[in-house]
Amino acid sequence: HSFGRSSDPRKSQDYPSPPGPPDIDPVPILPLHGLAALRRRLAERALSGTLPASLLLHGQAGVGKQRLAIWLGQLLLCERPSVDGPCGACRSCGYCGDVAHPDLHWYFPR
pLDDT tens-digit profile of 69-108? Predict the structure, then answer.
């Protein structure tokens, strides 16, 4: 028996390591303008614990659905949320603003 080496050929040192994540510059999150009444209703529901488990945002292209979804995610992760939205100053808001929060996932269709 040889110590330190596997007898399983699939575990051989000849296989390269999987590539790491690509170096991608974060996409800046643009400020959310408009949709004030909808944002307030969503914030009130989130703060009262009555926000549905899932939401479907739909509408014409360019109306701010994706940005609204990111805003809502930031609100839910914010350490000091209010009916006016995320505080924008806490650590979680900073991570969300940098697109670096580990619990905020942003998926794109291919």
Answer: 999 999 999 999 999 999 999 999 999 988 889 999 887 7
> pTM value?
0.71
Query: Which tens digits make up the pLDDT trace of 46-66?
Result: 999 999 999 999 999 988 898
Exposed e or buried b per residue across 25-52, where buried means at least 16 C-beta atoms within 10 angstroms of its C-beta: eeeebeebeebeeebeebbeebeeeebe
Nearest to 54 by CA among 64, 63, 45: 45
